[in-house]
Amino acid sequence: MHVWEVGYLASSLISVAMTGSTLTHSPRHTVLLIMLDLSRPEELWSSFEEALSVIRNGSKMSYDTNTIQELRDKRAADRKKELERGVDPFFMKICIIGGRYDEFKVFNK
Predict the structure, then answer these.
(1) CA-CA 20 to 30 A from 89: which of 20, 30, 31, 57?
(2) What is the predicted pLDDT for the residue at 47?
């Protein structure tokens, strides 16, 4: 397993990490981990959307259109039931991690 930590969201940095992972593994075996700061709940959704946008741009720099479409088709086949409900899967596997939960759990509900 190789872990590439990209602290600053920039398409070029994401592209380098994706290209680096492709040198040793197929893009089909790549899982993206997105860590969101739970201590800032008002920024969660915008942070997530920004991360996805940067990942999409970085992937276009790393992979050709055919590879991205092939990955999307594979994910669609894996998630056929969700697609029948109108969900458009991301072309790679994503794991969302919430950080700073210790601060988040004390917020008023």
Answers:
(1) 20
(2) 85
